[in-house]
Amino acid sequence: MSDLLTVENLTAGYGQAKVLRGISLRVGQHEAVGLLGPNGHGKTTLLRCVSNLHRAASGTIAFAGRDTRGESPGSLVRRGLIHVPQGSRLFPQLTVEEALRLSASSSGHSSTWRDGIDQVFSVFPKLKERRRQLTGTLSGGERQMASLGMGLMARPTLLILDEPTLGLSPKVKHELSECIVRVRAEVSSVILIDGDMDLVLDLTDRYHVVLHGDVVDSGASDGSRSRDEMMSLFLGGTADGRH
Amino acid sequence: MDGISVIVTSTLVLGGLYMLMAAGLTLIWSTLRVFNFGHGALMMFGAYLTWTLLDAGGLPVAVALLGAVAAMAVIGVAYEFLLVSPFIRRPGGDMLVMVATLAATMLLQSGAQLIWGPEIKQLPPFGGARVEVAGAVAQGSQLVTILLAPLLVGLLALVLKRTGIGLTVRALEQNREHAQLLGIAPRRVYVFVVVVAIGLATVAGALLGSMQFISPGMGGDPLLRAFVVLALGGAGSLTGTIAGAYAIGLLEAVTTYYFGLSWSPVLVFLAMIVIMLVKPEGLLRTKVRSA
To answer: For B204, which of A57, A210, B20, B31 could close a Cys bridge (C-beta 3.0–4.6 Å)?
Structure first.
């Protein structure tokens, strides 16, 4: 099996509410896959299931050829599956450097954290300036950088980025997008969710559109589908009233 | 002058005992988000174990205490496995854990009654050293309490600030979900925290057992005082805990001296109610930590 991540017929929800309805997905080695679609349709839940923060009701997930059922999030991290969550407030009372070091040690790379931090500082020069600052005092953009930097410290083979540019001003967003391009170059495989469709299509090889907990459209991120077609796909999905 | 010197000594002793109890409670609170009602009973059990090692084992009191701390660490691991981890991840699990710790209190108290019988025990003083500073006298276990308690709690603060496990504890405290995504296993942190907290409670139990008596119900009062300390210092902050412990110690010493033993708890808890009403986040906290 050459795929790094395989998700098959996954269903999941919270209590009575079904969020994922038999979704399937795969990510190859050295491949970046984008997930598009409106908020509240299951993208984040899918990623939470992949990193075993949320238990799926049925279906299978395999990472690097091994079923992940019953595996702890920590074990997945040490196998190289790193999830950078959406809008994390990080660890307000830890400094940037402490947070980065923590990510290295908790993923089993404590002995090489200095090399890791040099790499992170070369991708995010701003974090180097802020290294002694508490993460709780960072701006929104800097906080995202720290969050991505922590992801890199864990030496991912699959890096999952959930809405890295959420809530940022256009200028900061632009700056962060450039960082994400540099992050992409450092990591073998990536799953990217972002509200900025152009960013996702620019950075990924393939995309999936997720609506009502299932994939409704897939393709190469080469612009063969027009932006208008994409948008109508989104709206068509919301117009039929299902949640 | 005589009154003041008595008050100073008893403030430092009571403050020391309360900080040993409250430091563990605050550590458990900030990581597990539960209040450990079993803490007083665990303290009592630690005191009895120290007594057994001393009486039956014939060990010197300090060695007996170390042995009791080691034994209580094992009990701490069992405590976490049986009472915390089966419930903590369920919806509303924090409530279940609190009820489980209440049940543990009864179990430990009845267990102690069964094992050690109804007659009251006492530990000998920890050494016979005597120190007098400006009229205030402290000797034996008092002196050990005054010095050892801030030393141990200070050491704990240093471990949290400087070591890898300390960093892990702080991270889990501040953002549980993201900590898990970084690969931190909450269970290991819980075991560490529970063991450290119970170790400190054991020290408090042995010290109290050498100044007063050991009985199945001995943990009740210190537990309640430690609760007031948390309310005062703000749960989750060790600096607040140390300051709060001395403040409650002082309040108790002063009220006991001037109004008598029976009025002191009334005034201490009255102070807690006022603090809860006026500044629920604790006196030293500027604002409640955002969610």
So the answer is: B20
* Listed residue (A195, A155, A161) closest to A145, CA to CA: A161
pLDDT of residue B284: 61
Residue A3 has pLDDT above 60, yes or no: yes
A74 Cβ under 8 Å from any chain B Cβ: yes
B286 interfaces chain A, CB cutoff of 8 Å: no
Chain segment B126-150, per-residue pLDDT in tens: 888 888 888 888 888 999 999 999 9
DSSP letter for B81, please. Answer: I
Would the pTM of this model clear 0.80, i.e. be above it? yes
Q: CA torsion B104→B109→B114→B116, rounded to 10°? A: 130
Bridge partners for B133 per DSSP = B136
Report how far residue B259's alpha carbon sits from residue B34's, in angstroms, rounded to the nearest whole number: 35
Instruction: Provide, rounded to the nearest whole percent, the portion of chain A with pLDDT above 90.
Output: 60
At B127 the pLDDT is 82
Q: Which of A32-41, A216-225, B4-13, B172-181 has the lowest mean pLDDT?
A: A216-225
* Beta bridge mates, A21: A11
- Which of B164, B175, B290 is opposite residue A105, by nearest beta carbon? B164
Mutate to test the interface with B, among A16, A88, A91, A100 (most CBs of B within 10 A): A91
* Selection from A134, A163, A162 nearest residue A146 by Cα: A134
**Are B177 and A53 inside 8 Å of each other by CB?**
yes
Which of A93, A103, A105 comes nearest B174 by C-beta? A93
Using a CB-CB cut-off of 8 Å, the residues of chain A touching B182 are: 77, 102-103, 106-107, 150, 154
Residue A85 touches partner B, C-beta closer than 8 Å? yes
pLDDT at residue B249 is higher than 80? yes
E-strand stretches of chain A: 3-14, 17-28, 32-36, 58-63, 66-67, 81-84, 158-162, 189-193, 206-211, 214-220
Q: Does A54 touch chain B (CB under 8 A)?
A: no
